[in-house]
Inverse folding.
């Protein structure tokens, strides 16, 4: 099954918004076993839409097209497809009723511009939209290419694709797909890639990478006619990946790094707190990004000034003067002070220079000291992280959380 | 000047990474006065690359193409372009020296796969890459289309486009472009759009919107042969936009909401602190996102538990029991306690239910109480924000910072 994606909209060709629809559809189609050979974006221009649809139909068995189904004069998709097929537009009364009913429900009157959204190329199959006013439709182009037309609003487009298009495409795919997602932190993408060399061939799987800076997600994908065979092959491939990558794999599936750490804390009945300086709240934000974090996370003291490091975290002023705020003794004192001030079992502290200003030869931009205090003692580390302010902050936050994770796992082994 | 963008890479057609290059190039080309009529993404397949390049050359005066210039066997761009032009590949010794020198500098030996990156279609103009091993090149396709080939790594691609391509294209554009960016917070995009109806025609400008949730950036763009006329027209358009939108415009140019607030604080010699609950560090993170924040921001106490609200922020336990943690008295007490604990002039506090769990009929998910304490007193507000956990947290954080901003501006008017 050869597939193509076409996104219509001048806001896209002008670069005003990032085209997430195209990425989402490409991934969804690949997951259904299709080979996506081309995606295209064109401005709201009937001639270009028509020409591009014709060219894609020459190449692909399936085209998914988004955008241009709205009520304004810019929205030209239905008329363009009708012209391409040489058929008139026809109003669909059922769709018109649905649009009217939806607008009444939201206290609005249906304008003629909205009624136009119930016009479709004669003979098209209509795809209802439960989340918005613009229904979609599908037609056959050229020598048997199925073309599906969906609204450009991502939420509506995704729901319609998943319920009305994906099930049919899945039946046409040459087999069943099984996929396992492994979340990793610790190596750059190139190293992950090098470590996994040869596994695709050895296990007959596809291995794909997705970077969510600074994490790398490894997807192991197997295809077989028998769904159980596909699942078993994906599982064997994932085990081989885990073996090669060792401790840097922190979870499987849709689990964040903070959630994986949270699981360890919850298992052991520990509450955690943080004391941040250069990361300015990023560690706390990562820890509370998902719901349920109050089961293992108590809070943070963000001490952007020495005065607060002293008053709230009890870091001695002499220590701050002697070693400077960015130093191992201060990171350790912050961790101990945090555990005491917040009454937590595990405390993680960071102090560093995120830049772009504030670096010296001795303490360059990117230098970060971090420490974790547990009932077993205090562990400290430091690194000089490279990159922009944002990258330095993200790298530091993940490195500090990783130190907590490694410390807890090591404590567990010792116990 | 009609332009097109082509991005090459199977990682893109599989949807493994979001195509930010395409958006960035479309915006940059539009800013240079070009009309981008089409962008395309194709897999690493010589036949499709060749066919797509040919089709784009029929339409466009300029094509910018990214990807496929790396050292691996997947990287086929140079060979494909040579075949399309009917010329052989030729090794460029100067590029080869640069690649060897770069690899030596990073302590690596140059492999034959890297040497291949110095091979270009005969007659191509070479575009050196100061940030990576893959140089780019340009050729003329069809009846005079200039095609530029750049590496897919965004940092390298952007630097090469800006220094080696943009200056030449700017000279060819039909006039000069002046652009003013206004940053707004407070209205959804549809309302901003409605408020500005008719301004494009009245001032002969293009008005474009970019959403950085929950902010909307309004770009006012004017084009004229005389650069001063373009600037004057953009300025007049921007003034009209400011008049229509009033206080929701918080800055012009590349300034974050937190930086705009920081400027007000610095002007008045005030230090600010925060006390967060449901936003879990997001407000602190926004305030410290850019360098220089230590001039106006002291730190935060993130109190995810009632115990910390009491111990670190001196919120009375009876108050927590009587009104609950998510209540106006507690938000106000947190703000007062924060000002005292951190020794700051201005304190902002938030307490709410970010979800997805934890809501009740009386206190639903999305309910957030926030308060700001200044030397003049305490102001509190509450809202029920809609959306996902992430959206509720971002909306709350911006609303609370906006309350600080409005309070300080109102204090200033009174004084």
């Amino acid at each position: 099954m050869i597939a193509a994606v076409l996104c219509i909209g001048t806001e896209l060709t002008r670069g005003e918004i990032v085209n997430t629809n195209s990425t989402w559809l490409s991934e969804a189609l690949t997951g259904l076993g299709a080979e996506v050979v081309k995606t295209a974006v064109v401005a709201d221009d009937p001639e270009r839409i028509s020409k591009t649809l014709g060219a894609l139909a020459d190449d692909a068995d399936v085209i998914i097209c988004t955008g241009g189904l709205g009520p304004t004069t810019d929205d030209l998709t239905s008329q363009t497809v009708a012209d391409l097929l040489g058929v008139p537009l026809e109003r669909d009364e059922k769709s018109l009723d649905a649009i009217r009913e939806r607008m009444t429900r939201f206290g609005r009157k249906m304008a003629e511009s909205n009624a136009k959204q119930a016009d479709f190329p004669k003979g098209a199959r209509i795809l209802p939209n439960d989340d918005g006013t613009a229904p979609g439709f599908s037609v056959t182009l050229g020598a048997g290419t199925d073309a599906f037309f969906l609204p450009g609003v991502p939420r509506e487009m995704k729901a319609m694709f998943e319920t009305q298009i994906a099930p049919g495409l899945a039946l046409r795919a040459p087999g069943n797909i099984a996929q396992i997602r492994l979340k990793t932190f610790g190596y750059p993408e190139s190293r992950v890639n090098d470590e996994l060399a040869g596994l695709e061939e050895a296990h007959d799987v596809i291995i794909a990478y997705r970077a969510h800076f600074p994490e790398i997600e490894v997807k192991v994908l197997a295809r077989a006619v028998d769904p159980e065979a596909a699942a078993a092959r994906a599982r064997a491939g994932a085990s081989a990946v885990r073996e090669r990558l060792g401790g840097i794999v922190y979870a499987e599936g849709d689990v964040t790094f903070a959630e994986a750490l949270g699981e360890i804390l919850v298992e052991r009945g520990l509450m955690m707190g943080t004391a941040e300086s250069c990361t300015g709240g990023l560690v706390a934000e990562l820890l509370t990004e998902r719901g349920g974090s109050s089961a293992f996370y108590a809070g943070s003291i963000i001490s952007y000034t020495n005065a607060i490091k002293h008053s709230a975290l009890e870091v001695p002023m002499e220590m701050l003067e002697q070693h400077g705020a960015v130093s191992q003794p201060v990171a350790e004192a912050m961790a101990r002070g945090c555990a005491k001030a917040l009454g937590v079992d595990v405390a993680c502290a960071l102090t560093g220079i995120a830049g772009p200003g504030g670096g010296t030869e001795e303490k360059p931009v990117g230098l970060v000291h971090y420490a974790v205090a547990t009932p077993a003692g205090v562990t400290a580390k430091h690194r000089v992280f490279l990159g922009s302010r944002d990258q330095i902050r993200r790298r530091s936050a993940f490195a500090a959380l990783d130190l907590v994770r490694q410390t807890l796992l090591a404590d567990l082994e010792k116990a």
In short: Residues 130 and 156 of chain A are 8 Å apart (CA to CA). The radius of gyration of chain A is 27 Å.
